[in-house]
Design a protein that fits this description.
Length: 131
Amino acid sequence: MPEARRFYGRSVVKGVAKGEVLFSSHRISFLGGVDPKSGTVVDPSLDIFGKCVAGKILVFDGGKGSTVGSYVIYQLKLHGKHPRAMIVRKADTIVAVGAIIAEIPMIEMDLNLNGGETVLVNATEGFVEIC
């Protein structure tokens, strides 16, 4: 059995989650970009258009757009359609506040993944393991 590979980053919101990666090479505007009731990415300019963030480890460049995006992340949580954790290249205020109020583990790091991998996010200790 191969060993897990561990990578360290900066913890933004503490917590631990394991799941399948949904990777986007873009910044995401949650307001208008993700449907808060279904978790489906509705922005056709994104490389994950049509995919659902629910139950995934969402890996992306960071947020963009309106500060209301923080509330959309919280709405995702209220509807049970939130990502299990988020890994961002650049932790901007919009996404960080959304993750804090929704209690979604979040870590800042530059980690290139293809999507589909299973990872363990330990944002309490500041690392990600590729399982």
